[in-house]
């Protein structure tokens, strides 16, 4: 099983309107800038298409970044990913562990302290929504206080997500997170490498 890097700068990647080549180019630039975990999130894509993209990302990440696949344990195993990220209402951690054995890290997405307490058996938690997020419009943000409360309720490493930028990432780290996960702060930038570099610097000074 791989080890989680510290601090974590996770890029949640989705092709959406981009071509695979465009996405791969932007992810490559982001890794060059300091992203050390890539999480592939494609809930509407067929298993075959997700696997095709995941294999390309696995090759791209190499030893530079860990690769996690959202929800699809089968795809994560088939592409040789480092881990699988389970939604809070998704497959139970113990069920995923029976399939993966010790070879994959298992992350759980949580949104409340109660969700944190119910995530036993996971290797890490992705916690949000911390700040207002364009990818989750209408979802009430909880602020860094949620990270602080979660950190007091678990020994698992916590990664904050939701509206995080280089300007507010430090507050998430100071509240007890080991890193952050972002979407638009990098993929929405005209220069993903520079955006990742600025985020990485913000994490390392806190």
Q: If you had to describe this structure to a student in words, what would you say it looks like?
A:
- With 206 residues, this protein is of the alpha/beta class.
- The chain has one domain (8-204): Aldolase class I (TIM Barrel), CATH 3.20.20.70.
- It has 9 helices and 8 strands.
- An 8-stranded parallel beta barrel has the order 1-2-3-4-5-6-7-8, surrounded by 6 helices.
- Helix 1 (20-33) links the parallel strand 1 and strand 2 (37-40).
- The chain starts with 7 loop residues before the first strand and ends with a helix.
- The relative contact order is 0.17.
- The mean pLDDT is 94.
- Supply the number of helical segments: 9
Order of helices and strands: EHEHEHEHEHEHEHEHH
Q: How widely separated are the two ends? A: 27 Å
Number of strands: 8
Indicate the structural class: alpha/beta
Q: Into which percentage range does the β-strand content fall? A: 15-25%
CATH arch. level architecture: Alpha-Beta Barrel
Mean pLDDT across every amino acid position: 94
What is the CATH level 1 assignment?
Answer: Alpha Beta
Name the shape in a single word.
globular
Provide the spatial order of strands within the biggest beta sheet.
1-2-3-4-5-6-7-8
Question: How is the main sheet built?
Answer: 8 strands, parallel, barrel
Which fold name fills CATH's third level, the topology?
TIM Barrel
Question: How many structural domains are formed by the residues?
Answer: 1
Low-confidence stretches at least 5 residues in length (pLDDT < 50)? none
Helix percentage range? 25-40%
Q: What is the gyration radius calculated from CA atoms?
A: 16 Å
């Amino acid at each position: 099983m791989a080890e989680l890097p510290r601090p974590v700068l996770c890029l949640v990647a989705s092709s959406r309107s981009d071509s695979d080549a465009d996405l791969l180019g932007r992810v490559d630039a982001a890794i060059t800038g300091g992203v050390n975990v890539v999480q592939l999130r494609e809930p509407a894509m067929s298993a075959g298409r997700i696997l095709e993209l995941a294999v390309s990302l696995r090759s791209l990440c190499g030893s530079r970044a860990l690769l996690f696949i959202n929800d699809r344990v089968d795809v994560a195993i088939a592409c040789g990913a480092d881990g699988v990220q389970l939604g809070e209402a998704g497959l139970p951690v113990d069920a995923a562990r029976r399939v993966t054995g010790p070879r994959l890290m298992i992350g759980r997405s949580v949104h409340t302290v109660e969700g944190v307490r119910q995530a036993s058996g996971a290797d890490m938690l992705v916690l949000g929504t911390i700040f207002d997020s364009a990818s989750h419009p209408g979802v009430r943000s909880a602020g860094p206080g949620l990270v602080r409360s979660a950190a007091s309720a678990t020994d698992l490493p916590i990664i904050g997500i939701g509206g995080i930028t280089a300007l507010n990432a430090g507050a998430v780290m100071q509240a007890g997170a080991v890193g952050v996960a972002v979407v638009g702060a990098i993929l929405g930038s005209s220069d993903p490498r520079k955006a990742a570099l600025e985020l990485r610097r913000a994490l390392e000074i806190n």
